[in-house]
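Schema walkthrough. Field components (list of strings):
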Amino acid sequence: MSAQPEISVVLPIYNEEGTLGACLGEVLEQLEKLRVRFEILCVNDGSSDGSEKLIERESQRDSRIVPVHLSRNFGKEGALAAGLQAAGGRAVLLMDADLQHPPNLIPLMLERWRGGYEVVEAIKEDRGREGIADRLLARGFYLLMGRAVGENLRDSSDFKLLDRQVVDVLLEFPERCRFLRGLVAWVGFRVARIPFRVQERRAGKSKWSRRALLRYSVQNLVAFSSAPLRVVAWTGFSTVLAAVLLAIGQFYYYFSGRSVSGFTTVILVMLFLSGLILTSLGVISLYVANMYDEQKARPLFVVRRGGQLGSSAQAGPPSPVSEPGSSS
Ligand code: UDP
Ligand code: MG
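Field assembly_structure (string):
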């Protein structure tokens, strides 16, 4: 591409053959209306369905659609990071490829960006259909994460338009475990918020199981906040305090001649303390594991060059293109 595109759209794609075609159609329609120079980066996050073929076909038909194939599934954060790195636009728009993020919001987002905002966030006005357990879990997670970055993240989404300045700052971040929404909140800049309704998925299903979500939440919490460690310290301190009070009580009973036989109490106290110690060790281990992962500094994603199997372009050697940082 000769001239720099005004806007790069990044679509993370993992097995989205059912919705990708429609999504590309709608995004193209919106961007063409705006008469801007643009590119649409289709980041294929190791899809095993027909997504890759579809991306290749579309990119051959329209040179503004740019394929980025990852060497395997790296997770959405990895795919987003790959997209940010490949994007050449003066602004980068991140959106899901399942049409849950409505493309008809693009013109308004662009307008806000042109009005001087470096970050334009689409805020979930309605979280779509979600069970009560999911809603509660999400609420707890966002409350803690929000405290960690000092922002309300509850209704934030990955549907964002970022100015080149912001993208460049994000690309500098060395950390492997990343939660883009948190990082964007952390970097600051002038932020415009636009409410939107999360659409129903048109086809396929969400890639998130409850277990995966829980793991993702714990990982991000550990990566972003040291609050759990402080909780461990405070719990240890409170336990010591409770033990001192208990001892004082026992002395009192002893000297007033009402000493209680304490076998059950001893077992209970031991159980309580060993539980506490193990839990605390567990929390600390999460941080050690996080440090271990960061220390290895493996790339967040690996881009595979070359076309599909059997096509004329042969897959080249895997490119070391990568960026330190990830969720995996
Ligand atoms: N996605 C991805 N890699 C993954 C999982 C998801 O690139 O490992 C993409 C997916 O194709 C979609 C977006 O991330 O475009 C959001 O995924 P999903 O709809 O499963 O998440 P939800 O909307 O349920 O939070
Ligand atoms: Mg979705």
